[in-house]
Amino acid sequence: MKARQQGSLILVCVVAVLALVLVASPAYPWGAATHAYIDDHVGKQWPVRNLNEMYGGNAPDAFNYMFDHREWLDYLFQQTHYSPLSVWQEAERILGKAAAFGFVSHNEAWGADYSAHIACRTCGPLPEPKGYVIVKAEAMWEILGDLGFGKDTAIELYHNIVESALDLLVKSQLDPGIGPKLSAAALLRSAELPTLLVDAYASGFEQTFQLEAGKGAEIITSAEAEFRKTTVLYGQVLAQDGRTAARLVAEQLVGMAEGFLGYPLPPDYDWVALTQVLLSYASYLCKDDFSGEINATVQTVDEALRAHGIAY
User: Fold this and answer.
1) Which of 44, 121, 145, 268 is the most exposed place for a label (fewest CB within 10 A)?
2) C-alpha dihedral over 278, 231, 73, 192, to 10 degrees?
3) Does residue 18 carry a pLDDT above 50?
4) pLDDT in tens, 264-293
């Protein structure tokens, strides 16, 4: 029943997708399909609420592309990934609570990003705690080297390659419909969510950076609006056949590389082709154990949400 209801909602969104694509920017979120898959398996089963949880589960990353203001990016990353409960506490209406539920699920302190970046659930004994994505990124560095970027930068680049490869694996092996679901989630996100983000973070943001009153709200709502558009587009990318989706994801990663690095990529390589190879290699490293890690994360996130009283 849930799948049929979601399918109807997704079809209704097609025209709106086309309208948004005309004005959306070319950047897409990293790891969005994996977060959407996790939130598709925790929380409420009613379609619109579930889709709001899926979008909310990606919304903490809305500020990760402020490459022109890295101090803002770092501040808002810390707030959204380590102080998410303020968004939940501000939510009043049911769809706002659904989006806030997903938002909290993402966090790096004990949520989905904790297993991705801090402590892997299924990697076995490690010399020190590391997230699943970090384990795979470091494995890529050990085998492929730093590509001329230096170790720390290379590992961070591999980190993003791994997250994108996981999205492609989720699409191909766990949920072929994850792309349309992701687009529908962004299109149907609660109108309350931007207000929740402003209420939770704008005042502290303005005080920290001595911004004029109202500027924090403007920056936050603008970033979320762009993120919403790019999430719609990314869902459409993942709706393509596997080969096309992989090529488009590679193009997306190369397109964002300059902002991420802070300088242009050297012109001597076909970076899209190289990135496709790296995505394939990351998929190879993850293909045998990624589903176990994601399913373990679903279980632990569900338990942690309950333990923190996040329910509606």
Assistant:
1) 268
2) -160
3) no
4) 988 888 999 999 999 999 999 999 999 999
